[in-house]
Amino acid sequence: MSNTPLHKSFSTTSTSRRCRIHRHDENHYTLGRIGKHNVVMAVLPSGEHGVAAAARVAKDMRHTFPNVRACLMVGIGGGAPSEDHDIRLGDVVVSTPSFHPESRNPGGVIQYDHARTMQAKRFQSMRYLSRPPDALLSAAPGIHIRHNRKGNTINRTIEEIFQQRPRMRREYSRGTRPRRSSDDDPTVHYGLIASADNFIENAEIRDLLAKELNVLCFEMEAAGLINNFPCIVKEVEILRQAVLDDNQKTVLERLPVAPQAAFISYADEHNPRCLPNTRVELLDEIMAQAGDPDAESVFWLNGMAGTGKCTISRSVADAPDQAGKLGASFFFKRGEEHRDNPSKLLTTMASQLATRRPAKMAQEQFEKLIRQPLLAGSPPGQSKRIIFLVDALDKCDVADRAKLVLRIFRSYQNLGLQLFITSRPEEPIRLRFVSIKSKYQDIILQEITQASIRRDLALYFRNELERISRD
């Protein structure tokens, strides 16, 4: 996340790939890649700054990207140079835990009350914020050591960007100031960052506060972000400087998928789920099956047209998706490109497991993209089951599609996977399930008890009448 659009201007990894934005998300994103990691970049709205603005951007980002594991806050800060830290314009400060005896801060960022602090000339109402993940804290010393031994390549990277985009040189280049020969230009510093809702304009007070806790940098957004995301904060001392990792030159490679076919809870907001307190017994049975390591690994929900199979599928997918147990899904739909045939079924399901084109046969795709990665990544004795959901198999316009899907997934029984399939009870599909005999469990929607149906209808009509009266 950045508090200025400058960093997006300098990004060399942005792609034309678009993402579906949650209806409650007002951010604008650029997608890219650093090494093997997918990256999403957002900026604070123009003219806004401070803790509240950063918290709002972070909260909105979680709606659209619930699987973000860590965050790097890149922004503008005011350096606090001292005898120990020769901080110059254009330098970088990375937040790391402070060992100052007064800071008592394990996370690298403190939040303070700006008005009371300015009046007292000492930090007031300090909050000690959540610490970053251990993976980030472990990486920071390694990078620090590498910079001490070999220097950084920031200036070289910026110069390469200026050569690629010469129009940016006039606005973003900066003046030079002699440094010691042993220093990089710019230099990366590691230490404590202080965050509040306003600038510190008085250099004397700034120096007093910096000395009190050995603070290297003062800024205005990190405190709003760090409790919403696990993150390390990287502050840039002047707007005319961009810092990019050398690995950011890798272009995002995407596995060909059918993006509309995958279950995305925010993308299909207009598609119905089961009304609360309806289909209770059915959903309980399905979820019990999904959580039982001894249950059959194939579950077939079948029913005639209009019996609610797709609605049930979305309801079934919601809870595992939120719990991180929905391994993959594919919703077939007749007449929509890539969703009415299985050519991208496995690559869609494996899009998080591999990034290669589906040039091989389906059996080899399953072996290389799903089975082998899952075997390699699953610890021995793992009891949690991962759900693979295939909705509306009858809308797949390929002969004997049930045979294709069931045959490919036959070898997954030792992976702890649960295959949930919905379809109409068409003869070819029904016969294929019959052929695997007792190796699956099924529910026929037409055979659900009348009492359960009447209760659900009563709840539905009551809910609709209440909605109409409110409108």
TrEMBL record:
Keywords: Repeat. PROSITE patterns: NACHT. Residues 169-187 have a biased composition (Basic and acidic residues). Residues 166-188 are annotated as: Disordered. Residues 297-425 form the NACHT domain. It holds the Pfam family PNP_UDP_1. GO terms for biological process: nucleoside metabolic process. GO terms for molecular function: catalytic activity. This is Phosphorylase superfamily domain-containing protein. It comes from Hirsutella rhossiliensis. The lineage of its organism: Eukaryota, Fungi, Dikarya, Ascomycota, Pezizomycotina.
